[in-house]
Amino acid sequence: MNDLSAPSAAPTTAPAATPPGPAYGHFSADSREYIITDPRTPRPWFNYMWNEQYAGLISHTGGGFSFLESPRDNRLTRMRYNCLPWDRPGRYIMVKDAETGQYWSLSWAPTIELKYDRYECRHGQGYTTIVTEINGVRGELTYFVPTDVNAEVWRVKLTDLSGRARQLEVYAFTELMMGNALNDIINQPNDKHFTDIHFQEDLQALECTRRYWVLNKKVSVAQPNIGWDYHLYFTLSLPVTGFDGSLDKFIGRWRSEANPECVETGRMHNTEITAGDPVAALQSKLTLQAGESVDFAAVMAVVKKDEDVRQHAAFRWEELRDTAVLDKKLAAVRAYWDDYLGHIRAQTPDAALNTMLNVWNPYQAAVTFDMARNSGYYHGGLLFGNGIRDQFQDILGMVITHPERVRARLLNALRFQLQDGSTLHNFFKFTNNGEKTNHSDTPLWLSFGVVEYLNETADYSLLDELVPFYDGGEPATVYDHIVRSLDFCLSATTERGLPKMMNGDWNDTLDQIGPLGKGETVWGAFFLAYGLRKCFPLLEKRGDTATRQRWQTAYDKLGEVTNSVAWDGEWYIRAFKDNGDPVGSNAHKEGKIFINSQTWSVISGLAPEERGNSALNSTYELMGRPNGIQICWPSFTEVDETMGLISRCVPGKKENGAIFNHASSWFVLASLLNGDVERGVEVYRRMLPPNSSARIDRYEVEPYVFAEYVTSPDHETEGQASHSWLTGTAVWMLRIGLDYILGFRTSLEGISIDPHIPAAWPSFTAERVFRGKRLKLTVHNPHGRNQGVREMRVNGQLVAGNFIDPASYAAAELVIEVTL
């Protein structure tokens, strides 16, 4: 195998040798938690806590923000991007020793200058626990969002380690926003005049709201005349001895979260406000006997204004202040994730692959399903809303465990299609509006998502559901929606039959190639062909022979034209500009080769075998790197106004030559489909976060989830990753691992068992739930093969081939034994 660190055909300056950095953390023995033992990580390392409406990011130091349904329109708490110190503000529990005056945070931040005796953060599924020891007190702080109520819980246990009685003060506080996060940034001096915070004695809680709510569909001087539709309640389960609703009063002048004046003096102002910057801050006092532990919780809950929290069935207010009840809610969160992760299991000779496929990859896929690209440390949730292409890709993980949620997702997203078959590019939940950007690929993802849902569920009733169009007219069936989407893309082609690039395709930064309507996307031609072919079994099942024949003709034509005009000798051209000039040719100085047109030439089935081999070999030889495959090479060093934003990106970063993991995953898929098993699996392994983050001080981001990209050798910060968590890489790496490496290949008719594994694996076991049945697979590889099923038994019976129709078996569990 070639050394990917410095391929001879793509000379680069090798990065200086970097000694291993400190091990900031590690996976637990069962991989269910990532345990951070040094809080001074290269970047804040995040987790998520959420249910279907209420969500929050939570960092390893208590940072992050919370929102209800929309991170732009209904943000609850503040987080300042690019804040110094990092990761501020957050959700803090501070403890003060009343005798000595010493105070500290249970999450390390913001009192980071203090010397802690112990720090440990455990990021799990839907919860984060931080343990600190300082000043003779152990604090255990668990953040989570219950499955059944729109609230977040900060569950606390304090234990005396000093052997003497302690008089302690507890301060729970977080900075509030309550409303439109974008408006808060650009109009805070005015927006702050509509804040209402009052202490409700009978609830022992601050009741917080805002009398004005900006829900503009665009920036405008027009002022909406509506109030924020919610009350936010913040309470402590301990008796409240003081409170503050004013950030200025609680923090004090020329201070920060690290040294609030009220904590330092021990005196709360009991300030209720009708204007000003809001904070929810509560104080309580307690005595901790020698060696004793005390349990309590801070809770932040949100209800509609027309709902009385005192009568609210879902909340049961006193239960939210009962730690025993809260512990049951935390147990329900754990049980939910036990069930979710129990749908997939793998035990292979590769520990990193097991860790990702069993826990962190499906977990990250669940995060992307609910957060899209819209609510993270790198995605502020302020501008783009929910992307259509993301909506129809992110179902790939959730459809295995919760197909009913995917069904609802598909029906909702299809509402943003227009009658001509085109779609909006993105939309916002609260305002139900979005933007039509004329990205050429966006409509193609509709059929992709629907067919994947049907492959998993065989729920053909979905196709007959009526869904309206965004621009009016009569509602149409889901089946009609997807036919229109593909027909629209077939109509949006040039005279010679290639799809028009328009304002870009999957690569958003190729935005100046076809603004005049003449530029063409070669990748788009391959992806359109793939979309057509993916629908062929469905058309046959529906008996739609006319559409089937018409699309077969279109598929064949796409094959003819791409191979006629887009083959460059060793690989495929990426696109053609409005003036006809090619993009991605060996004749160019920069941007000679792009990954997507090579991989999808194979995935689509349009590349003849010799050309497919050459395209993938060229990609691997020229763009292979230790962490994956570059998106293009060489990176652009000069701005090219006819290319677009790609040439303005820093060389080696993002779309300009980075190892773009989403696209790199498609190289793995193409390699496996092409029979290049060893190479495909090796690149897959390189991309796994436990492997790609080996130089963690350079890598920087979380080593337990995929990042959007890793900087390539074309930049001096080679190996630095960015935009973690919210990336389409998550679902593609999950399904490539599950479907193509382990070999569970779903289809409309059932499932095929077709593993693609390293020849060195002697065996492996895997499980998967499919259409109500648990498939328990054991693969034997006595002859050191990497693909090709020689024999398969199901529940002890030898079967012909490698296909299974689960409906033909009465048993709830199918034991499958395969020999390669």
Largest sheet: 10 strands, antiparallel
Looking at the structure, the CATH topology of the domain at 32-335 is Beta-galactosidase, Chain A, domain 5
Radius of gyration: 28 Å
Q: Overall pLDDT, averaged?
A: 94
Q: What is the annotated CATH architecture of the domain at 32-335?
A: Distorted Sandwich
- Which strand order does the major sheet show? 1-2-9-10-11-12-19-16-15-14
Summed up, the helix count is: 20
Please state roughly what percent of the residues sit in beta strands, choosing from under 5%, 5-15%, 15-25%, 25-35%, 35-45% or over 45%: 15-25%
Q: Could you describe the 3D structure shown?
A:
By secondary structure, the protein is α+β, with helices and mostly antiparallel strands. Among the domains are: 304 residues, Distorted Sandwich (Beta-galactosidase, Chain A, domain 5); 77 residues, Maltose phosphorylase, domain 3 (Sandwich). 28% of the residues lie in helices and 25% in strands. The protein contains 20 helices and 43 strands. A ten-stranded antiparallel sheet has the order 1-2-9-10-11-12-19-16-15-14, with helices on one face. Strands 6, 7, 8, 13, 17 and 18 form a six-stranded antiparallel sheet that branches. A hairpin with a 3-residue loop joins strand 9 and strand 10. Helix 6 packs across helix 8 and helix 6 crosses helix 20. The radius of gyration is 28 Å and the shape is globular.
